[in-house]
């Protein structure tokens, strides 16, 4: 996940500040994180945790009796730490790709270099002239009427039309050290549709411009040794599906987290009992 200039992390996830002074706009990725269950993350987290225990079995056995609480906390945090590390690498790859497109200096980063090389290779294979074919990179888009915003990684002209005619693509970068370059998630389509049908592009001086007409959308999977552009069917049907999730996410963000218990006739509120919680 990148860190757009106008994005702010809140207790309910990421929101965008509107320079025009309107209400904060929920981010597209926040909507999907709130409303789409990541079932694949559960077995992934179990696998990482199991591997960590097996790889460190002597230490785990030594600490079970005398340091159980701290050991449990550390084991529970393993998958979060891996996820955060992967997210940090993804941010750095995004930043390097943006700087390459803009002709800006790129930080020396051996972890990022293989992924950036694949990005440059993809541009070369498609004959991209950065000055002529890139419409925008890391551009913020708003849909004020619906109340959401997001960041498009790349708007680019590619010769994919009839007889090699140029078409405007909206592309989102995805990075992974383990997944196949051809693999995508269904919610990637919803993300692209939300960005595609936004109403406004925010210019560098915080003024508005109409969202250009996007002809095709896709995910550019960047891996250390390969890459793949996977076209996604992010049409109006996908946007309608995203709008349904948007309403659900907005409701969940505004809903209270506790409700009063209903007492029976004549029942009085029981006194609170002090409880001692065991450290997890």
Question: How would you sum up this structure, described in words?
Answer:
- There is one protein chain.
- The longest helix has 35 residues, at 68-102.
- The mean pLDDT is 89.
- Strands 1, 2, 3, 4, 5, 6, 7, 8, 9 and 10 form a ten-stranded mixed β-sheet that branches.
- The radius of gyration is 23 Å and the shape is globular.
- It has eight helices and ten strands.
- It has 280 residues and is α+β, with helices and mostly antiparallel strands.
Estimate the mean pLDDT confidence. 89
Unreliably modeled segments: none
Oligomer designation: single chain
- Give the class from helix and strand content and strand pairing: alpha+beta
Q: How far is the N terminus from the C terminus?
A: 30 Å
The main pleated sheet reads as: 10 strands, mixed
| Net shape | globular
Strand elements, count:
10
Strand content: 15-25%
H and E order: EEEHHHHHHEEEHEEEEH
Q: Into which percent range does the helicity of residues fall?
A: 40-55%
Give me the number of helical elements: 8
Based on CA atoms alone, the radius of gyration comes out at 23 Å
Properties at a glance:
globular, alpha+beta, single chain, 280 residues, 8 helices, ten-stranded mixed sheet
List the helices and strands and how they pair.
Blueprint (H helix, E strand, L loop, with lengths): L6 E4 L2 E4 L8 E3 H8 L5 H15 L1 H7 L4 H35 L10 H13 L4 H4 E10 L4 E11 L8 E9 L10 H11 L3 E3 L5 E3 L5 E7 L4 E5 L4 H19 L26
Parallel strand pairs: 3-5, 6-9
Antiparallel strand pairs: 1-2, 2-3, 4-5, 4-7, 5-6, 7-8, 9-10
Helix pairs in contact: 1-8, 2-4, 4-5, 7-8
């Amino acid at each position: 996940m990148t860190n757009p200039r106008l994005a702010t992390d809140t207790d309910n996830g990421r929101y965008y500040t509107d320079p025009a002074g309107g209400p904060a706009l929920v981010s597209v990725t926040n909507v999907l994180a709130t409303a789409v269950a990541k079932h694949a993350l559960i077995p992934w987290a179990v696998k990482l945790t199991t591997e960590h225990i097996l790889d460190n079995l002597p230490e785990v056995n030594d600490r079970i009796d005398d340091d159980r609480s701290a050991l449990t906390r550390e084991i529970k945090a393993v998958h979060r730490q891996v996820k955060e590390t992967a997210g940090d690498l993804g941010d750095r790859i995004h930043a390097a790709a943006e700087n390459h497109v803009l002709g800006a200096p790129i930080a020396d980063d051996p972890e990022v270099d293989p992924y950036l090389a694949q990005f440059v290779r993809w541009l070369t294979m498609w004959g991209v002239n950065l000055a002529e074919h890139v419409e925008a990179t890391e551009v913020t888009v708003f849909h004020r009427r619906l109340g959401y915003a997001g960041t498009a990684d790349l708007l680019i002209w590619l010769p994919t039309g009839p007889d090699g005619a140029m078409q405007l693509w909206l592309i989102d970068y995805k990075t992974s050290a383990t997944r196949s370059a051809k693999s995508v998630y269904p919610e990637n389509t919803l993300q692209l549709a939300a960005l595609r049908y936004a109403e406004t592009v925010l210019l560098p001086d915080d003024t508005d411009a109409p969202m250009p007409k996007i002809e095709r959308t896709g995910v550019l999977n960047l891996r250390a040794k390969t890459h793949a552009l996977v076209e996604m069917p992010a049409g109006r049907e996908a946007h309608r599906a995203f709008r349904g999730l948007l309403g659900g996410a907005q409701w969940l963000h505004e809903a209270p987290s506790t409700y009063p218990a209903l007492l029976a006739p004549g029942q009085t509120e029981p006194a609170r009992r002090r409880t001692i919680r065991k450290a997890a």
